[in-house]
Amino acid sequence: MSAARINLLENPTVGKAVKHVASAGKVVHDSPLPVSTQNMVTLRASQINGCGFCTDMHFKDAIAAGEDAVRLNMVAAWREATVFTDAERAALDLTEAGTRIADAAGGVPDDVWENAAKHYDEEQLGALVTLIALINAFNRMNVIVQQPAGSYQPGQFA
């Protein structure tokens, strides 16, 4: 695979929409939700959705932000990993439930929400919900257009 089906940033409609979604992402980035949690959430959702571009991007951005490679490598197996805090585990659980929403007839289970609410205040929960929705939107756009992965440079879209 050498090129995406369409260039998302150069397409007049998608390019405008991406700028708005990215602006919403900046709001979340600047929120009190810990950046390390944000990195784990975006990486895990991207893995679940099979978005190579976003998996590459969020891994590299997290490394550039000082995150430990072992923790990032363990995101895919977070349930068995001992390198995450209880709060991070709750965020990853909510991420999986919110990303795999079609797999659960009742949506996000109450126990998953309640566990996240034990670790994050209302503002952080709002940021977490928004982040999960945004990364899923970006994943879907990139998967649909078959965005090539591997060449992302940290901070490329800053």
From TrEMBL:
UniProt xrefs under Pfam families: CMD (PF02627)
Domain Carboxymuconolactone decarboxylase-like, chain residue ranges per copy: 24-96
InterPro entries with a match to the protein in the record: AhpD-like, AhpD_core, CMD-like
Protein name (record): Carboxymuconolactone decarboxylase family protein
Taxonomy, superkingdom: Bacteria
Lineage: Bacteria, Bacillati, Actinomycetota, Actinomycetes, Kitasatosporales
